[in-house]
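Q: What changes when fe (iii) ion is included in the input?
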Amino acid sequence: MGSKAREIVGMDLQKLIEMLNKALADEWLAYYQYWIGAKIIVGPMRGAVAGELMEHAEEELKHAGMLVERIIQLGGTPILKPEDWYKMTNCGYEAPEDHFVAPILEQNIKGEQCAIEVYKKMLDTVKDKDPVTYNMALDILEDEIEHEEDLQAFLADWEETKKRR
Ligand code: FE
Ligand code: FE
Ligand code: MG
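A: The predicted holo structure follows.
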């Protein structure tokens, strides 16, 4: 990272890099949870839900890439070992052991709600201190909010279908 670019960050760089790495761990786990969920899901609406899950997986992977780019710009080292995903995650990983549509949607909604909290906290932390990270976190937060909304819409459709049978 350029020295001027580093100078304008008004907070502890190591703390900032750690926060970004923790979010990176979340994104990889979210990516896999969606990706494997899309493969194994069964039940009504499985085609539509699987398509949505796969789209979200791709977006989580894009978020991971954005975080890595910023970590490198700040002079940090992104997580290098998958075992560190588990050590550093904020939101954890929920294995989709029940392959049915509803529990998979519920698990991923929980993950999105955690992600929304993580990026809101990141925005509060870097506000007035690091505009570049702020912009990135805001872009990601907008996606996570959309993800939660999409999944809750599918869950509502499923509940309605159940009622009408
Ligand atoms: Fe994400
Ligand atoms: Fe998401
Ligand atoms: Mg979507």
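Observations recorded in class: Residues 52, 55-56, 146-147, 150 surround magnesium ion (ligand 3) (CB under 6 Å).
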